[in-house]
Amino acid sequence: MKGVAKLNGIPPFEGVLLDLDGLLIDSETSYLHAWQQAGLQWGVDFREGFLRSLVGLHAGQVDARLAAEIGSSYQRERFFADAGAIWREHVAACGIACMPGAEELLAWLDEQRIPYALGTNSDSSAARRCLAHAGLAGRFNVMVCRDDVAAGKPEPDVYLRAAASLDLRPERCLVLEDSTVGLQAAASAGAIPVLVREREADSDMERLAHAVFTSLREVLACLA
Q1: Would you say the C-alpha torsion 41, 134, 196, 101 has a positive or negative sign?
Q2: How far apart are the C-alpha atoms of 178 and 56, rounded to whole Å?
Q3: pLDDT tens digit string along 119-139?
Q4: 94-103 as b/e, with b when 16 or more CB fall inside 10 Å?
Q5: Which residues contact 28 (CB under 8 A, 6 or more apart)?
Q6: Measured on CA atoms in the order 209, 212, 215, 217, is the torsion positive or negative?
Q7: What's the CA gap between 133 and 14, in Å, rounded?
Q8: What's the confidence (pLDDT) of residue 62?
Q9: d(C-alpha 141, C-alpha 134), whole Å
């Protein structure tokens, strides 16, 4: 389907690129739980604001911030092993919820034959595990993850490769994101950044986004 029109002043687009964590699935809740519990094991009670600052970053950035917060006792492999064990136990028991409207939006894109791809700062193994726990295993024919590119978001590599994998120019791709780094990556790629975020957006997010929605259900209602 070519030249799909969009309301709210968004240019026509031919494909959709979607973030994963916090946009399609509520994996953030499970990550925050794992980091918080691992921190307590290390004798550190992380502030909520600090934990939320880790969301959307790739592993190297998370590692640097954890090291600065915990101090000289921090050991990357041990901490990530602790947090990983807590996370796996948590999602095995509780699963990972899809964000409201995620499954309906993907079904609509399929029905309309609009190509789409996943673009995430998560490594491919973590992304596939999260998709499986959310009931979305095998849902994406095209996935571009942090370990597929030279640099993660906010650099444009993820979305440049995702657009190329769909055989589309970036400027013809709508990018649905929930974070500042994701919007920066989309803008740097020359794509059409759209913010989907239930929590209040800050000025940087609003400046980068062509439009702002509070859920994927709102996005679908606008498209359909």
Answers
A1: negative
A2: 9
A3: 999 899 989 999 999 999 999
A4: eebebbebbb
A5: 21, 22, 55
A6: negative
A7: 30
A8: 86
A9: 17
The predicted-structure confidence for 44-75, as pLDDT tens digits, reads as follows 999 988 998 887 676 788 889 999 999 999 99
CA gap 187, 94 in Å, rounded? 35
Task: Over range 13-35, report the average pLDDT.
Answer: 92
DSSP 19-74: --BTTTB-HHHHHHHHHHHHHHHTT----HHHHHHTTT--HHHHHHHHHHHH-TT-
* CA–CA separation, 132 and 213 (whole Å): 26
β-strand pairing of 192-196 with 173-177: parallel
DSSP 197-218: -SSPP-HHHHHH-SEEESSHHH
Tokens of 3: 């030249």
Burial 150-162 (b: 16+ CB within 10 A, else e): eebbbbbbbbbbb
Residue 121 CA to residue 90 CA, distance in Å, equals 21
Amino acid found at 207: R
Confidence (pTM)? 0.83
113: left (phi over 0), alpha (psi -120 to 50) or beta: left
Strand partners for 174: 16, 192
